[in-house]
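Quick one:
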Amino acid sequence: MAVLLEDIPKVDVTVKAETLEDDLFKIYSELFKDAKKDELVFEELKGGYINSIRRVYPKNDKNKSIVFRTFSLKINEDVDLFAANDQKKQTDEEKQSTDQKKQFTGQEKPNDSAQPGLKFSMLFSRMTEYLVMNEVSKHGLCQPVFAQYNNGICYGYTQGVTVNSALMLTTDFLTEMATKLAEFHSIKLELPGIEHKTHFDKIDQQFKPLVEKMIGFVEGFMMTVDEFPYNVYPKPSAMLEMREQVLNLIKEVEFGDIVFCHNDLNKMNLIWDSQKRTLGFIDFDMSMNNYESFEIGQLFFQLHWTFSG
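Output:
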């Protein structure tokens, strides 16, 4: 099924950090004509590393809750994070340190601006996210989308709490998860402007240039890759080896059907309503076609983490 962006109402408002509540009220009042700003609660929700997420509702009626997700209000999605990191860390002390290293080695950090950087906008399309949420809501798997605005989207509030480790081990959760995931995978959705066959292909296209950029970034600080303190993440060279292993595995093994997937089934994106014993999904910025086995494997990874923890 093809869906159009025109299916979602558009409000011509740009939300800014310095006028956040005033801007959100302009949009809210378009949805609820009788609303008064001094009678509303503007509640900041957890999460949203890149985006600002606010729940807005009347003080006496939480049933009229609307979630406003404003993009790039915290971090510009189109900024190269390596470049942004450089700028953020360029204090006077570090500039002096860089000058000293240049004097000692006769070198300075290489100019690798021609190499691909890391931008959040590489990983998802906001336009397709609107369309995904609009379609998924028709299947009862998320709250309806009420409107889009110039730099964000607003939709219904999903009642419940984020899933925890204990809940993931219950029969109620596992049964509901299997049912809802099967429904999700049955959705037929044609997204415009998608160049990749699967989400895996999309991520892989960015992976190798990104790791090569990481190697150049590390070496730019006068360290070899082996000297870098890898306490959490593997060495970039090891990551490239793992990529080749995965690609070879895909050629050898049948990974199953390609279906419409959420692609980000971590606990924070799963909402459990304890009264209705139902599960809801949030955060669809990576949703697109992918291997069904990937989605199921991601869920088992969460379960393994739960058992291990």
